[in-house]
Amino acid sequence: MIPDTVKKIVKALDDKKGNDIKVIKIDELTIVADYFVLVTGNSNTHIRALADEVEFQLEEAGLRPSHIEGRATGWVILEYEGVVTHIFTEESRNYYNLERLWEDAAKVDVADIINE
Q1: Which pTM value belongs to this model?
Q2: What's the sign of the alpha-carbon dihedral 4, 5, 6, 10?
């Protein structure tokens, strides 16, 4: 069962036209988080808009981030209840390649969340 927090984040990113949204379940591999949500923005402005939309949608649901990092960079991190959202420029996403680092993690079908 996918947590509502993950669903809300994915839908917010999709609403703002985030590119290549991926969700990976990492709870069996680390204590850092339960899920990573990865998305690419077209520009720093788009990245800020994606982050703002996630914050807005989750605040509407009564959730506040426990951690925010990177507001002025090509990689913004928002953490909510064991779900860490990584919002990248394409260059940063390719450079850090978190999908490769966490390739042993379970993948979540984002289309199922968006079409729900």
Answers
A1: 0.95
A2: positive
